[in-house]
Amino acid sequence: MPTSASTYGLIATFETAPALYHAAEAVRDAGYRNWDCITPFPVHGLDKAMGLRRSIVPRISLAGGITGFITGMSMIWWTGAVDYQLVVGGKPLFSPMFAFPVSYELTILFTAFATIIGMFVVNGLPMHYHPVLKYDHIRRGMDDTFFIVIEARDPRFNLANTRALLEKVGGKAIAELEA
Amino acid sequence: MPAASSSPSQLAGKALTIGLVGLAVTAAGLLVPHNARAVALSYLVGITYWTAIAIGMLMLILIHHIFDASWSTVIRRQFEHGISAFKWLGLLFLPLVLASFLYQRDLIWPWLDLGHEMHGGHTVGHDPLYLKKSAFLNPGMFIGMTAGFFLIWMGLAARLRKASFTQDADGDVAWTFRNRVTAAAGLPLGALSLTFAAIYWVKSLEYHWFSTMYGVWFFANCVRGALSIGVIIMVWLWHRGDYKGILNNNHFHSIGMLMLAFTVFWAYVTFSQYFLIWNANVPEETFWYNLREINHDGGPNQWKWIGIIGILFGHFFIPFFFLLSYRYKITKHIIRRIAIWILAVILLDMCYNIMPALKDSHGNAQPLLSLNLVWILSSVVGVGGVCVWSYLRSFPTAKLIPIRDPRIGESLTHHE
């Protein structure tokens, strides 16, 4: 249900990690997709309570690794066997043997690049501004308080119903966030 | 609750019976005429294979203690049972020594017999390449070093087992500190002994050849074997019910990551050895690989295909790609299948390193797919049965996990 364009979403406060954990399970089961938890420290098992799947970064890493390996092999094949043919040490113009160390290093290098870049992209980094920063008490989220934020762009979002859900699961000081 | 037929003591009896049958079949191979060397080398494969796995278990325990590791605490106890096998492995190694000295000096290691006639007509005693190495490769050193290896492994195993088992009863944290000291001294001792064992038992079969990577190659196989057996034990004890509520996905993920890491490590080492020899292309080194690729007429032999399909793809690519997946690492029947696969290819790797020492009258390596395969498999089953019996016999003598280890709480709640 669309709301006014200026609403980013709803924020609810929780005092303890178990309260947040169970609230997250309820929000997950209600079918919400665009929402997040804000905690002062990592809460083990919260990813499961939120229904998050494993990160796709490993797949990006694998793609980077394969790219690096192919780059290394084809670069050495192109330079040595096609573009500037030169017999070195009585070896064939191209062999995967001597191309392997370089390809292997490029595999590692490209895997590292893909992992770092993939992690930034998946996390939406760099992010210089986020609407929750306008919320007065958000700094307590770095100290002793837990929050759940449900975004207005979620298809299930409805100002009244979502507020009722957050109240039902024990959320305190529920407030609307400006976009 | 486990059925009575699967209790460790009953399984131990079965394992010992299977082991003794395997050893008997191997011994029966001696009845085949002119077969003694083939049987002896096959038996060396069996002994080296299981000794490697036991060494891997020992090294993993030592590494666990030196790093004060936490997650592996619940699994460590199984390795502590496994390393009880060293005394039996030492006993089983004895026939190789006795056969070499009482039956035929050059039965296995040609350099034990100075009169051994080599390709080309001259003897080992007149071989300059032997004379340069004779301070190292001689009967006294061979017996002394081999006895020393087993004494080191048995001594370390006894110390680690005593400290860990006693801690179950008295809960004294001093045992943990004592194990850390054992680990600090034991790791260099273990590294040197396993390296020299690989050199004396396996590499010296072709004593002209040399490779500085050999000990590292052997170590990589040791640890991969131990991790794989560890996974099989974990899944077995999980299905039996013992490990329910103790192991979680993260334990399987962690040991799976170690399996992946050591797969890459093994490949790095094995490729480096091949690549440096290929690149330098000096006959003193290349003959070892030539023996494993071509016959004297230049045609390929069986070992070439074993090298490409079994070693390159089977030992590296297949486990590597399967172990990349998180889901495969935590799905018990899949990770167990990968573990069994790795154990099989380690055996193939041992065969690849040992069996081509067996040559026909033209100096070509005898093929693997022959009657020799029977003695190899019977030796592996024979020595393996004794090792499994030793593990299962030790199993009921201590708690399932080190319940009073200072890290046990952390290990039980192991998370990513």
Distance between the termini of chain A: 17 Å
How does the major sheet of chain A shape up?
Answer: 4 strands, antiparallel
The main pleated sheet of chain B reads as:
none
Largest interface: A-B, 11 and 9 residues
Run of helices and strands of chain A: EHEHHHEHE
Distance between the termini of chain B: 30 Å
SSE-based structural type of chain A: alpha+beta
What count of domains describes the coordinates of chain A? Answer: 2
| Radius of gyration of chain B, CA atoms, in whole angstroms | 22 Å
The helix content of chain A is 40-55%
Number of helices of chain A: 5
Compute the CA-based radius of gyration of chain A: 25 Å
If strands are numbered along the chain, what order do they take across the biggest sheet of chain A?
Answer: 2-3-1-4
Integer average pLDDT of chain A = 91
Contiguous helical run count of chain B = 15
Secondary structure: elements and pairs:
The complex is a heterodimer of chains A (179) and B (416).
Chain A: E1 7-14, H1 17-29, E2 35-38, H2 46-49, H3 57-83, H4 96-123, E3 146-151, H5 159-168, E4 172-178
Antiparallel strand pairs in A: 1-3, 1-4, 2-3
Chain B: H1 8-28, H2 36-66, H3 73-82, H4 86-103, H5 128-133, H6 139-170, H7 174-202, H8 214-240, H9 249-280, H10 283-291, H11 302-323, H12 326-330, H13 332-354, H14 372-394, H15 408-412
Short structural description:
The complex is a heterodimer of chains A (179) and B (416). With 179 residues, chain A is an alpha+beta fold.
Tell me about this structure.
The complex is a heterodimer of chains A (179) and B (416). Chain A is of the alpha+beta class and 179 residues long. Chain A folds into two domains: 7-54 and 128-178, no CATH class; 57-123, no CATH class. Chain A is built from five helices and four strands. In chain A, helix 3 packs antiparallel against helix 4. The longest helix of chain A is centred in the middle third of the chain and has 28 residues, at 96-123. Chain B is mainly alpha-helical. Chain B has one domain. Chain B is built from 15 helices and no strands. Chain B has helices spanning 8-28, 36-66, 73-82, 86-103, 128-133, 139-170, 174-202, 214-240, 249-280, 283-291, 302-323, 326-330, 332-354, 372-394, 408-412. The longest helix of chain B has 32 residues, at 139-170. The chains are: A alpha+beta (179), B mainly alpha (416).
